[in-house]
Amino acid sequence: MSTTHFTSTIMIRVIVFALSHNIVFGNDQPTFVTAGCRDDITLHCTFLQNCQNYTSITWYKEGKCLYVVLLMAVYWCTEALPLAVTAMLPVCLFPTMGILPSKKVCVQYFLETNFLFLSGLVMASAIEEWGLHRRVALKVLKIVGVKPAWLILGMMITSSFLSMWLSNTATTAMMLPIANAILESLFGNVETLKENCKDKSDPEGDSQVKMHVLHFEKQMLATEDRPDWTDRSEQKNLEEARREAQYQMKVWKGFLICIPYSASIGGTATLTGTAPNLILVGQLKSYFPECDLINFGSWFVFAFPLMLLFLILGWIWIAFLYGGLNTRLCISKHDEREATEAKATAVIDEDYKKLGPIKFAEVSIAFFFILFAVLLFTRDPKFITGWSTFFNKGYVSDAVTGVIIISILFFFPSQRPSLHWWFDSRASNTPYVPLLSWRKAQECVPWNIILLLGGGFAMAKGCEESGLAVWIGKHLQPLTQVPPSVAVILITAFIACFTEIASNMATIIIFLPVIAELAIHVKVNPLYFMIPATTGCSYAFMLPVSTPPNSIAFASGHLMVKDMVKTGFVMNILGILCVSLAMNTWGLHMFNLHTYPDWARPLNASSASVATYTIATMNMTG
């Protein structure tokens, strides 16, 4: 409550300050009429009177929309209100403040992009219901083996693949218990391991006062009772055991930290993998209705190689930092190493056997999952003709495909139906249980994310209709001097840093309209700036609070903040460089980023007409 009161007070004071100063716009430069400008106050007042119509037409609505945007941004960053409640503020504020009518605001909360996201969530809940994701994870770990480096790679591949279809949070929550079970079979209990990492040659229980008294007695006993080489040998063994325990603890941390990182990376490979990807699609349709370059297939072709590249580089960095690529293995002695590896392999095999033989429901879910992915990929992949050409142009979208597939899950049987009753009505039949019930889907689907998506689309619509986006774009002229390739790096770095302290959805909702206007004013293909921003907001690796997967891994109690900062800083740099490489190589040719597209010109033309109308009005009234 105190945070809400604090943030509300800040916003009210900002508005009061703005209303207490007369802001005049002439030649795109704001002039503040304050008490200190008494010499030419008459001139300013005359100019204000002449420009009254202009101010009421443009700046008045833009200012009110800016207030709503800033208010939502503060609430999202501070979480003074639940994120979903903040996302519904446009429904209250836009109509009452005269920015947008309610019929234009409310429809933004369930666009076709929301249906695509909903279909992905329902498919994920069906996979989790029948445990198919756990079977896939254990099978991958059986294949890669239990060597530290390869096991880290196996964890990252499995987490990233599952995160392409499941939520990043669900993937991390599922993979961490599997990782802990394998690690305990390799290294034993983690508390014992932590105890062995301590330096036992200097116990903390001995006080400094007693040390100088006992020092001579210990030397005499050591000299009389045993030779020096025995003492040195024991001390050497203790030191080796301590170093070995520290090395094993490092590997343990590497296992834990690679799971949330790979889940965040994997979510960028598909449109349904993470919400910011769908926000990009929704805002593209709002700002540039003629742009049809981004769909499930084209995004996958662009983002999947980027994900693989980043995943490999991230694996090399994590394995190097945490000892997985060390030439020695986790245990120095060959026999002991083989014994522990055999034990870890046995744990994986035992967990896999507990799943039992593959069930009819798992086979059915796997079939529909593959069909879901193939249909989305082949609908309109751009580089070949898709199956959507069999229907009226523009009628069938990715949302239609997703809803068709998930609808089947609610009536398809989860057990193999018996055909005996077709020939004998008295024959017993298996009970009918569908693959997914509506109650289960209702429990698993995070409806607050649907509202967050809608709030982002409503905010973007308000910025577009009020002219706020154009006004912000015109004040970004200094950035026109920056080369576009450098701007891509700066945008990705800024978004990646900002999303460390704010949710990725809030980040992309706030900045994507601004970035779109920036691209228009510097005459660069908007996708050249918007795609890196969208991808970069998923690269939050440095803090436990950055993403829910980071928080889950940190809550295990085995990681420290400095571990995440040290690892995540380099991961952020690697991600920024990978995005820049992708945008300037295969992305450049896939989306024709080297040319300014025709679908971006209508918005630019309307912006120019608004500016022309403004100047003409000022000239006539002046």
From TrEMBL:
It holds the Pfam family Na_sulph_symp. Keywords: Ion transport, Membrane, Signal, Sodium, Sodium transport, Transmembrane, Transmembrane helix, Transport. The keyword Membrane applies. InterPro entries: SLC13A/DASS. Coiled coil: none annotated. CDD domains: SLC13_permease. It is found in: Membrane. One of its GO terms (cellular component) is plasma membrane. The keyword Iron-sulfur does not apply. One of its GO terms (molecular function) is succinate transmembrane transporter activity. The chain crosses the membrane at residues 65-89, 148-166, 254-281, 293-318, 360-378, 390-412, 486-515, 527-547, 567-586. Residues 1-26 form the signal peptide. It is a multi-pass membrane protein. PANTHER family: NA(+)_DICARBOXYLATE COTRANSPORTER 3, SOLUTE CARRIER FAMILY 13 MEMBER. Belongs to the SLC13A/DASS transporter (TC 2.A.47) family. NADC subfamily. This is Solute carrier family 13 member 3. It comes from Cyprinus carpio carpio.
